[in-house]
Specification:
This protein has 275 residues and is of the alpha/beta class. The protein contains nine helices and ten strands. The chain has helices at 28-36, 60-65, 85-104, 123-138, 163-173, 184-189, 197-205, 237-247, 259-273; strands at 10-13, 40-43, 69-73, 110-113, 147-150, 179-183, 210-212, 215-216, 227-228, 251-253. The longest helix is centred in the middle third of the chain and has 20 residues, at 85-104.
């Protein structure tokens, strides 16, 4: 009997897949996807802690022409909400560069964390900085692919940790077509109710474009972002699969483990989402 087919692609985060010389490492993301029988990959285009501009990838044409879903994750330290000009201004430039490079490899979207402001700052300023980021880019035609803002696990003045903060952010950026990534580990860490999280988020944003389906090593409400395998973490596996079903969108696993472990997780999620 043929294995069940999920309604949406199921991918795995595989990192850049490049050496320092910008050459493919271990066959690159497409080889990793084949090894795990994944429908998609999520990659960085540079070191995630770097402000370097992305270079054209040697496998760019293959990623663009292939049938494997590609999602690109922006660098972690990028923070366009910041009130610090030395962080915000180059962050906007780098965000646009990553968006262009992601579009060049056929990515479905560019995932970016919501960012934060300092404890002494008014969060409303961070929200306005996000609006200005989209408005500034709109002057040159907008971003060339969907920008997908991800909820975060901790931070008192984070733009996308609390549901009410996300509501304020969406009031400012929703008109620009911003997309949303629901990370289940981050939501758990922030104290959200995973039994209702899809309805709660969609009531605010009107959409969930991607689920980062991750378990957690820590208790509910811990504010700690430590991912665990789908089976064996603090979040019941059945609850995670319920979130993926309800969201009815592509899934990317950011769970620890080797290729064999990820292949097993993909099989589990594919069976749960089949039909």
């Amino acid at each position: 009997m043929a294995p069940p087919t999920a309604r949406h692609p199921i991918g795995v985060h595989v990192g850049p897949g490049l050496t320092e010389a910008n050459e493919l490492e271990d066959g690159g993301p497409l080889a990793r996807a084949a090894e795990m029988d994944a429908d998609g990959v999520q990659i960085f285009l540079t070191d995630p802690q770097s402000y370097k501009s992305p270079k054209p990838r040697p496998d760019g044409d293959a990623l663009l022409a292939g049938d494997v879903m590609v999602v690109v994750h922006a660098p972690y330290m990028l923070n366009v909400a910041s009130t610090n000009n030395r962080i915000r201004v180059p962050g906007r430039k780098l965000l646009a560069e990553h968006a262009g490079a992601a579009a060049a490899v056929g990515a479905r979207g560019l995932v970016v964390h919501g960012g934060h402001v300092l404890a002494s700052d008014d969060p409303a300023v961070g929200v306005e900085n996000w609006r200005k980021t989209f408005a500034y880019q709109a002057k040159s035609g907008g971003f060339p692919l969907p920008l997908l803002i991800e909820n975060t696990a901790g931070g008192g003045n984070a733009m996308a940790r609390e549901l009410d903060a996300i509501a304020r952010l969406w009031d400012a950026v929703g008109e620009f077509g911003a997309g949303f990534v629901l990370d289940t580990c981050h939501a758990w860490a922030a104290g959200w109710d995973l039994a209702t999280v899809v309805d709660d988020v969609q009531a605010i944003t009107g959409r969930i474009d991607l689920v980062h389906l991750n378990n957690s090593r820590d208790p509910h409400g811990s504010s700690r972002d430590r991912h665990a395998p789908l089976v064996g973490g603090e979040i019941p596996t059945g609850l995670l699969l319920d979130v993926a079903r309800a969201a009815d969108c592509p899934v990317v696993l950011e769970t620890p483990g080797d290729a064999a472990a990820h292949a097993e997780e993909i099989t589990l999620v594919r069976a749960a989402l089949a039909g």
